[in-house]
Design goal:
The chain is of the alpha/beta class. The protein has nine helices and twelve strands. It has one domain: Ribonuclease Z/Hydroxyacylglutathione hydrolase-like (Metallo-beta-lactamase, Chain A, 4-Layer Sandwich). The protein has a seven-stranded mixed sheet. A hairpin with an 8-residue loop joins strand 9 and strand 10. Helix 3 crosses helix 5 and helix 7 packs antiparallel against helix 9. The structure holds zinc ion.
Length: about 300
Amino acid sequence: MTIKRSLAAFFALVSACAADRPLALSGWARNNPDWVESVEPFRVDGDIYYVGSRGLSSFLIVSREGHFLIDGGMPENAEMVADSVKALGYDIRDVKYLLNSHAHFDHSGGLAALKEMSGAIMVATKGDCSALEGGFYLGSESDHDFDAPPVKVDRVISDGETLTLGGVTLTAHLTPGHTRGCTTWTMTSGGKQVLFFCSATVANNRLVATKAAPAQYDGIVEAYKSTFAKAKAWRPDIFLANHPGFFDMGERLDRRKAGDADAFVNQTAFPAHLAKMEAAFEQSLAEQAATAESR
Ligand SMILES: [Zn+2]
């Protein structure tokens, strides 16, 4: 009885604390409040829904035989993503495949919790497996500010491989650079080509080895270049990405609300974004190479 009563008291205390105190925010989330700010989920096109935060995208793609979920945002975002799925009238337990654009904490951080909630199969490329399962940022393993909750990968997917649920097919495209296993996903929606781009920013990546540190990972420069060369031919009707700012989500949503049903359709948006990313990459490469030489 005593044990039972103290257990009951303990759980009462736990639930009271949980109700009163929000989850402690990481430094990243404090410095990037839009990353953890909830927004109303919405239909992008056909079976594709936005279930991310204001600053970090997550996409739900539904089918009659279960759903796909791309990206989990920060660890703090998992509950928010699940709530958005629910608000749209879907059940997180019907998510069958969990996908990830790339293994960086701001897009993979929520995956472990979302996998737990959904029981879904975690799918990733070989290049990003170690970082997802180890919970680290490849090449910055000792920087624990970059850690993410580790998530087990159940299925390794290669370039060009597809996943199908209830007539909806997603194709994986390896677009390495930003991470070693950066994955872009494509699908068709009502005859339109939809592209979920990984990322091609340089961000914190060391492109060039110095005496102080090796490059972020072997072959990183060639990886970026192969992605720019490959993606140049792509002209998706709908370009989506893991940061809403990349595809002007707010502006497009405003236009949609103002009556433009095709606000998310724009074949020049992706090539323009890619050109910008390539120019920024070349500039960073030149700067990093110059710094490395002067050391
Ligand atoms: Zn990243």
